[in-house]
Amino acid sequence: MMKNKSTIARLLAEEDIHVVSKKMDTAYFNIKKRELGLPIWKDEVSKVEEELMVCHEIGHALWTSMDMLDKAEKRKLNHSFVNILEDARIEKFVQRKYPGSVNLFKKGYTALSARDFFGIANEGVNSCNLIDRINLFFKGQDGVEFSDAEKVFVDRTANLETEDEVLDLAEELYKYMQENPETDKHDDGESGEGENGDGDSDNNESGDKSEFGDDDTAGSDDTFSKGEVEKDVDTDADDTKSSANGGASTDDDARESSDTSDGSEVGGDATSSAPAGVPEAKTDKALSDGLKSLVDGDANEKVYARIPKLDSSEFIVDYKSIIAELNAHYESGDRWVEYSLGEVKEFKNDSKKTVNYMVKEFEMKKSADQYARAATSKTGTLDMGALHTYKFNDDLFKKVTTLPGATNHGMVMVLDWSGSMVENIKGTVEQLLQLVMFCRRTKIPFEVFAFTSCYRRLGYGERGGFADVDYGEITISDDLSLLNFFSSRMSAADEEKMMHYLWMIAKRYNQSYENWNDIGFPTTPPSRYAMGGTPLNDAIVALMDFLPKYKKTTGVQKINTIFLTDGASNGLPGVKDNLNDNDFYSRFMRENLLIDPVTNKRYEFSQHEVTNTLLKALKGRVSGMNVVGFFLAGSGRKGTINRRRWYYILRDTNFAVDRAMKEMRKNKVVMLESNGYDQYYILPGGGSLAVENEGLADDLAGASKAKLKTAFAKSNKGRIQSRVLLNKFVGMVA
């Protein structure tokens, strides 16, 4: 429902305004924030009633200015009179601009009348005073009668075009009703005298002054609320508008309490009762009270969060910069640097046979899939070779087989570069190198990033701030960096260098050497490549800008985005909740709504579902994208997953612990369902990630062909299974 209301509001306002539903008594429109706020209604509120309120508020957003409110305040005009006449003017404009809304207003006010929200069920429409009958007439009430003298005011109301005309008519109408008490037919039956058509000074103090606010009134300078406007002398009042049929509300008020707003009209407090003898618009107050009764007081507050418009290039550190930094750090000629280079070359050579085999398997699977989807059709040309069978064969035409084109895949891998990855980093790098080698051989475009919180913080001084975002947008850490370790844009020489550098970093963090005296002590990586926090959520938000650009640039049809982590993401700061400073943020609550301004998709989520929800939004940004997660769940150097850990992992699934443990022993991986990922794999981590390159055992010399065949198959299976990332990736893209 909120999605529909938001769409309607943006269409009517002809701009990308934000529609939120908050725990408050009244609706509002914030000029500076371009935010339309609606109360959280009870379930009994119909769709047409909600759409009526949206259209009404948009009318105020488009055609009611702060100047009008200031003028009304200075002239001390009655709030209800101004509100009723302004409602008639702006609703006329809405219906003039959008003819389709005419029926909506009619049905909406009919529904509210059926609820007796105008408070006339017991007295009848023509027993009301003049201002109330004018209000009812322009809100579609049938059977409203006017004298010839009154029709002058009705005609003038119908012809209102400017705000000044509204204010002038409000003043004249109020004065007319004071001077002609027979037009005032409400229950007290009395009329009174007041200066400037405004009633006495007591009425000013109890009504107009409170709704417009004085220096003692705490409120927002930005809010166009249903009702009065409260202003603070220290803020910009010009940014605040008031609306109809509600009460005053400020940003803070709307967030914190449902008791802060209590009117619904331009210029004053509709809930105040006028003293005896003062003309009063009872229907205006009744409508305000009626709308309040529809507010769900038991509803939970909700945080609205929009995906920010970020430039991902500000967070990406290109591979050329990384190579230059690491090349300057690792001195050539160093014993350990030279030794580790030999290790990398040996690892690659040992891996070539297995990777090449998997490349052939990939090509075979791809071809088999093409032929499985092949379509055969007749050409309409006679097959001369089949003519001799015409007596018993009706199919004498040539056929053509059409092979569908294979989907063009791309791969983007996002690697966790947090401190807890130290025990997993060696095996992870080995898996990564296999994946890079495969993509290079098959000419699959690829990018590999590591998300980290250390690179900028330690490299450029302490930052610790937040990225520059607008009001209402998700705030991410300014410390986020996406280290672009590998890319299909790389030259072969740069790729070799990067493999060597990552190998050295992984080996040093893993501390896997025992013969340091012989080969030299491993060089410590640069401090900015240290492993810090886990800004996974921040990285996902940044990728929402990068991935659509990447797909367009590379021309790939389907992107396989792979996340490899060993833990949950750091928490996001929240949602920016002020316009000027970076020091106030709304934290996610039990109920939240993520809004993507690019796709116009909306995602409800709890504070425990942030990552999955961001992943859903990421998939919504990129058509045909496959999002895969690898979770390194093990602990220690061996990376084992104990039973207690399995219970924690599987608590929200139907997967049995014993079954998961058995499958892990057999296949080194377990696939689970996940709300955010298309595939989600559990890996043991640690030493279990190591890639196997061992050949056949030496004791097979002289063995039978059958035994050799079995041993070879087992060895080949082990080598493929150990390359778990590559193995699963091949299955995705074949």
Structure characteristics:
2 domains; alpha/beta; five-stranded mixed sheet; Rossmann fold; 734 residues; single chain; 23 helices; eight-stranded mixed sheet
Short structural summary:
The protein contains 23 helices and 21 strands.
Termini separation comes to 41 Å
Which of globular, elongated, flat, extended, rod-shaped describes the shape?
elongated
Catalogue the unreliable spans: 186-273, 401-406, 458-463
The helix content is 40-55%
Oligomer: single chain
Class based on secondary structure composition and strand pairing: alpha/beta
CATH class term of the largest domain: Alpha Beta
Rg, alpha carbons: 36 Å
Number of strands: 21
Mean pLDDT: 77
Strand order of the largest sheet: 7-13-11-10-14-19-21-20
CATH third-level topology of the largest domain: Rossmann fold
CATH architecture of the largest domain: 3-Layer(aba) Sandwich
Q: What composes the largest sheet?
A: 8 strands, mixed
Q: Bin the strand percentage.
A: 5-15%
User: Count of helical segments?
Assistant: 23
Describe the structure in your own words.
This protein is of the alpha/beta class and 734 residues long. It folds into 2 domains: 41-212 and 258-294, no CATH class; 312-373 and 406-638 and 674-733, 3-Layer(aba) Sandwich (Rossmann fold). It has 23 helices and 21 strands. The chain is elongated and about 115 Å long. The protein starts with a helix and ends with a helix. The model is unreliable at 186-273, 401-406 and 458-463 (pLDDT under 50).
